[in-house]
Design a protein that fits this description.
five-stranded mixed beta sheet; globular; Lysozyme; alpha/beta; 469 residues; 17 helices; D-Maltodextrin-Binding Protein, domain 2
């Protein structure tokens, strides 16, 4: 069966790799086959989670739409945003789930809007904050080249403004780096992409909104638009009405807004000064526990800022801030030894994650385990029971997260088996670890860029590379 699946993958790849003559268009859904969606790797679109599974805001939306129309979804992953539209124009995908705003393009029809964004002028903290377009006169302003750049300036930039047009498809993170390095005075950035990228650039700040508000919408290959856009309208109307879309936005972006510039800046500094000496210990802990070493490192940073001698007034100690009881159970001989503490913390976290009911899927399983690491598994069970009382889903992290503050309510905590807990602190703990994990993962990817270029076809959990056309 697995061999057959691989054969099907590469049969599809053969269609994409035809270099001598145009590839045959994929069939419409009424002619059979899977729903084919083009996207690219990024914080808003598609990425791999801590377990190596595909995830992402746009990825989840597309998978949900596939369920809505009763088809499995194959994802064609291209190098960057600029490669998305040619795939649709060649009719090698039905539509793109790629955080695109509407524009006029041959062979492409946009579906219903589903997410509001603005464009923001970004500057370096500590320098004069621009307040209007006139403050851009005589300044270097970086933006990603597109037909929308003129819209920011209602026709043309103010006289004397040096507009730096980076190539279409440039990652937003690179745009922010231009300002961070001082190669540009300001940048114009999509508001959602700035919120997800700011934690990697804590010195950058929002100045003012420029241009008209815009909306993300899926672009469809024109040949398939009549069949699919009416279905997409029904889909988006439903997920807006029943709260599914709001829930998805919270899942991927709510924790990002709670990251402070100071938190991010300190971590970036310690990745350079402290992480090299600890990386080997984290890798060995991953081998022993099965937990992604970057997650272990994120927990350790949240607990002690990677200080092996950290000690709290309550008696927890070491880099992973273990209690004496936990250290004994994990056979940690010296809590103040970085290697011992990291290994003990990783094994303890793995133990907690194993306790989370198997029906709870990733990434929620990891978020529940993080909450238990902070407040204890008993309190985690209490808050899940409380969520159930509140008519919320006890197996969904975002639902349970809403119940966490109630653990310190004097009218509620006496009714729970394990009583009082500082639920607000646990909320912050999980949010912080998620943000730290994202930053560490991104910085480590720069050390080991991995696969670059080309396109990828993902069928379920399978993926294979396609040479660039």
């Amino acid at each position: 069966m697995k061999a057959l699946a691989h054969a099907l993958v590469f049969a599809c790849l053969a269609l994409l790799c035809a270099c001598e003559k145009p590839a045959r268009p994929i069939p419409s859904l009424k002619d059979g086959g899977n729903l084919v969606v083009v996207t690219f790797n990024g914080p808003v679109t598609y990425f791999e989670d801590a377990q190596g599974n595909p995830t992402g805001f746009e990825y989840d939306l597309a998978r949900m739409f596939g369920e809505e129309v009763g088809r499995k979804v194959d994802f064609v992953l291209v190098e960057n945003a600029s490669k998305v539209f040619p795939v649709l124009q060649d009719r090698q995908a039905h539509f793109a789930a790629a955080a695109q705003v509407q524009e006029s393009l041959a062979g492409i029809v946009f579906g219903p809007p589903y997410f509001d964004v603005t464009h923001q002028v970004i500057f370096r903290a500590g320098e004069a904050k621009p307040k209007t377009r006139s403050d851009l006169v005589g300044k270097r302003v970086a933006a990603i080249a597109s037909s929308r750049v003129d819209d920011y300036f209602a026709g043309k930039p103010p006289t004397g403004t040096q507009l730096i047009n980076l190539p279409e498809g440039t990652p937003p993170d690179e745009l922010l780096e231009w300002v961070d390095r001082g190669d540009a005075d300001y940048a114009i950035v999509d508001s959602l992409l700035f919120s997800t990228g700011r934690k990697f650039h804590p010195e950058l700040e929002f100045a003012f909104t420029i241009g008209k508000p815009q909306q993300y919408a899926w672009p469809f290959a024109a040949s398939y638009a009549d069949e699919l856009i009416p279905k997409a309208k029904v889909f988006f109307e439903r997920i807006k009405r029943d709260g599914t879309l709001k829930h998805l936005v919270e899942k991927y972006f709510a924790h990002v807004s709670r990251m402070s510039a100071i938190d991010a800046g300190t971590l970036l500094e310690r990745v350079v000064t402290l992480l090299p000496g600890l990386r080997g210990h984290f890798h060995k802990a991953q081998d022993a526990s099965g937990i992604d070493w970057r997650m272990i490192a994120a927990i350790g940073y949240q607990e002690s800022h990677w200080d092996p001698l950290a000690t709290s007034p309550t008696g927890v100690r070491g880099l992973m801030m273990l209690t004496e009881d936990t250290a004994t159970r994990m056979k940690v001989k010296d809590r103040l030894d970085a290697r011992d503490s990291i290994l003990g913390g990783a094994l303890y976290f793995a133990q907690l994650r194993a306790l989370v009911p198997a029906r709870i899927k990733e990434p929620d399983r990891t978020w529940f385990a993080l909450a238990a690491y902070n407040m204890g598994y008993g309190h985690l069970e209490d808050v899940r029971i409380l969520a159930q009382r509140m008519k919320l889903d006890p197996d969904d992290w975002l639902s349970v997260r809403k119940a966490l503050p109630m653990l310190s309510d004097p009218e509620i905590y006496p009714t729970l088996k394990h009583g009082y807990s500082r639920g607000y602190e646990t909320m912050q703990f999980v949010d912080n670890v998620r943000n730290y994990y994202d930053i560490i993962s991104k910085l480590e990817a720069r050390r080991d860029p991995g696969l670059a270029g080309g396109a990828i076809l993902v069928q379920g959990s399978s993926k294979a590379t396609v040479p660039p056309r």
